[in-house]
Design a protein that fits this description.
The protein is an alpha+beta fold. It contains six helices and nine strands, in the order βββααααββββαβαβ. The relative contact order is 0.09.
């Protein structure tokens, strides 16, 4: 296709540092349990952009709007932004923080809109949600604040990450055998059998793991596994 790379838009970065692509931040992060794992995160710049839009719509210039009209303007922005980033890592925590931020901005907007104190006491009240009565939010009539935390979160299906063969087969990755006492090759670490079902063999006992069963060399013997019926 004779494509050329743009020098201004192309750079080489460390995977642990990550890079931003199509509005998402992709990087590798070390996890104690699994090692380096790929993560698709929400860029901080995108969160700042959303907060800026909310601040612009809840300023003094819009105090002549009704609360229902303000919510009708905010909800499509929040819903679209949330659906775009609901696949990212730790999205639930960031969504909850943004819900608090939007609710606080609406409260400040109402404080500017209703001047006298007696009007604030009657108007600045969060009402139970029509969809989730246990949660209180800003609502006027049938129009209520959209909460990002109510979105269903999912994960990207990484098609290039296939399930390793040793996950679905019993034994170790390079050793499809079960170790039993009595081998001549010395002590070997027993392998936990990963088969499941009625015919599956149990895991090695504590005596087998410690090599207390006497063999020809005090070790373990390895026997091929038979297919579970």
């Amino acid at each position: 296709m004779r494509l050329e790379l743009s020098i201004e838009k192309t750079k080489v970065v460390d995977l642990t540092e990550g890079f931003q692509f199509v509005g998402l931040r992709v990087r590798y992060k070390w996890q104690t349990k699994f090692g380096y794992m790929p993560r698709i995160e929400i860029p901080k710049s995108k969160q700042s952009d959303l907060q800026y839009k909310v601040r612009q719509m809840t300023g003094r210039d819009t105090t002549n709007w009704s609360l229902a009209h303000l919510l009708q303007q905010l909800n499509p922005i929040l819903r679209g932004w949330g659906n775009n980033y609901r696949f990212c890592t730790n999205a639930s925590r960031q969504f909850s923080a943004l819900d608090c931020y939007v609710g606080d901005r609406i409260w400040r907007w109402l404080m500017k809109k209703h001047g006298p104190l007696h009007r604030k006491r009657t108007r600045l009240v969060r009402l139970p949600s029509l969809l989730r009565p246990t949660r209180k939010l800003w609502r006027e009539g049938n129009v209520e604040q959209f909460l990002l935390s109510t979105l269903r979160l999912e994960r990207f299906r990484r098609g290039w990450m296939r399930t390793p063969a040793y996950i679905s087969a019993p034994g170790e990755p390079d050793h499809n055998e079960r170790c039993t006492p009595g081998s001549e090759g010395g002590h070997q670490s027993p392998t936990a059998v990963m088969s499941h079902g009625a015919g599956a063999r149990p895991y090695p006992t504590s005596q087998q793991r410690k090599g207390k069963y006497p063999g020809k060399a005090g070790g373990l013997i390895c026997e091929p596994l038979k297919a579970a019926s």
